[in-house]
């Protein structure tokens, strides 16, 4: 007797920003929360990384952790640097926060298939149609961190819905 495998494959998402201490660890935490709330955390592998090495081994920026905690988020990912060879192989989608991130990561692609994995979170900012990126709040104030979190929550919510719709053929609101 043959047993059918109804398990869905894991979808691996990697969020990228410049240093992996503000936007990408926040996106990591937000998407993790969203997949748990949707009951699909067993189908996702979520991580984040930075383009540069400046903060490798560090916790996220204190201000991002504080603003995230006010929203019930545990933003505690330890910063790491993007590794083109390993990360293009391991992840299905590499989600960048702005156009500079997009250019930096696509320039490291070793094939067209790698390049196609790189997507912009801004393409999923459906509740903020005027936004074309998730601005880096690092040199800003609390308002900048709140805006980044608002945009990331918007983008992650709609990205998750798009992935589920694509994988399962089921539209999610």
Catalogue the unreliable spans.
1-6
Q: How many H/I helical runs? A: 6
For the biggest sheet, the summary is: 4 strands, parallel
* CATH class designation: Alpha Beta
What is the domain total for the residues?
1
Number of strands: 4
CATH architecture call: 3-Layer(aba) Sandwich
The CATH superfamily appears as: Response regulator
Keywords: Hydrolase, Protein phosphatase
Protein name: protein-tyrosine-phosphatase
InterPro entries: LMW_PTPase, Ptyr_pPase, Ptyr_pPase_sf, Tyr_phospatase_low_mol_wt
GO molecular function, one term: protein tyrosine phosphatase activity
List the helices and strands and how they pair.
Layout: E1 11-17, H1 23-37, E2 44-50, H2 62-69, H3 84-90, E3 93-96, H4 99-106, H5 112-117, E4 118-120, H6 142-168
Parallel strand pairs: 1-2, 1-3, 3-4
What does this structure look like?
The protein is α/β, with parallel strands linked by helices and 173 residues long. It has one domain (11-168): Response regulator (Rossmann fold), CATH 3.40.50. Helix content is 41%, strand content 12%. The chain contains six helices and four strands; from the N terminus they run βαβααβααβα. The protein has helices at residues 23-37, 62-69, 84-90, 99-106, 112-117, 142-168; strands spanning 11-17, 44-50, 93-96, 118-120. Helix 1 links the parallel strand 1 and strand 2. Helix 1 crosses helix 6 (142-168) and helix 2 (62-69) crosses helix 6 (142-168). This is protein-tyrosine-phosphatase. It comes from Hallella mizrahii. Its EC number is 3.1.3.48.
